[in-house]
Amino acid sequence: MFHFKHFSLYHDNSALKISTDAVLLAAVTPVDQVRTVLDIGCGCGVIAYCLAWKMQQENTNRGKDLQEIIGIDIDAPSIGDALKSKEIFPQRDFQNILFHQQRIQDFAQKNDKNFDLIVSNPPFFVDALKPNTPQKNISKHNDTLPFEDLRDAVCQLLEPEGSFFLILPANESERFEQVSQNQLFKFYQLLIQPTPSKTVNRIITGYRLSPATSSEICPTAPACVIETLCIRNADGSMSEAYRKLTEEIYL
After folding, report:
1. For FRET with 107, which of 20, 76, 157, 216 sits at 20 to 30 Å CA-CA?
2. Is position 244 within any domain?
3. pTM score > 0.85 for this model?
4. CA-closest candidate to residue 117, choices 202, 178, 206, 247
5. 108 in a domain, yes or no?
6. What is the CATH number of the domain that holds 66?
7. CA neighbours within 13 Å on the CB side: how many for 41?
8. How many domains does the chain have?
């Protein structure tokens, strides 16, 4: 079991354990005005639960709205952990957290609703050597979820004014951007460095279905806001920026 600041989650049986990538994606993704969320490749549900907690806090400021979070993953043990965590999650007024063992391709074909927010920490290895564990192959390698299929699912399931946030290694992020050209339009990027002396190894990108337009208030505003985050200082300690970003999630 993994203990966060406000709740705990099971991940013992999941294909991949709770990671910094998932927590960072949840911490960075905005949930203001969000009522419906889809987590593609949800694993043990860590991103879904972190976003649910953030949405609960938003409710204290905007009243109680009907909200729903759905997590999709093809790995049965991971979904089992996600469902088990639901029994101990401090849901309060937030009841609609659902998890399904299903391919996103099948979900997109049968689903008739759109989502305000879609998030994904997807499998991304393409040509890398595969481990001997089939469960990890599914979670790390994109054989079962090619970037083209992920793009198509997002384009079909996202609300016209909704947003899609995902985290990928730098090279794979560039590849997804190429695959999604003229179909998904980035408006935000967070470039993540492990330490000041190392290069960017993860990128969180926010996409929309339409290209950004210049604001009437600020016509010179960039179409894509780019920020940087360094996780650790040169001495190995956690950076103040990372601590501040994740302080409401981690103990």
Report:
1. 20
2. no
3. yes
4. 206
5. yes
6. 3.40.50.150
7. 27
8. 1
- Cα separation, 33 vs 15, in Å, equals 32
Q: Secondary structure of the chain in the HEC alphabet?
A: CEECCCCEECCCCCCCCCCHHHHHHHHHCCCCCCCEEEEECCCCCHHHHHHHHHHHHHHHHHCCCCCEEEEEECCHHHHHHHHHHHCCCCCCCCCCEEEEECCHHHHHHHCCCCEEEEEECCCCECCCCCCCCHHHHHHHECCCCCHHHHHHHHHHHEEEEEEEEEEECHHHHHHHHHHCCCCCEEEEEEEEECCCCCCCCEEEEEEECCCCCCCCCCCCCCCCEEEEEECECCCCCECHHHHHHHCCCCC
For 123-165, the pLDDT digits (tens) are 864 554 555 666 554 444 446 799 999 999 999 999 999 999 9
Q: Which residues contact 189 (CB under 8 A, 6 or more apart)?
A: 203, 204, 205, 206, 224, 225, 226, 227
Vertex 120 angle, CA 115 and 121, to 5°: 170
- Domain extent, residue 56, equals 2-180
Q: Which amino acid is at 216?
A: E
Q: Which amino acid is at 230?
A: C
How many CB atoms neighbour CB 135 within 10 A?
Answer: 16
Tell me which amino acid residue 119 is. V
Torsion of CA 151, 157, 160, 161, to 10 degrees: -90
* Amino acid at position 248, single letter: E
Q: For the chain, what's the residue count?
A: 251
Burial class (CB in 10 A: 0-12, 13-18, 19+), 224: middle
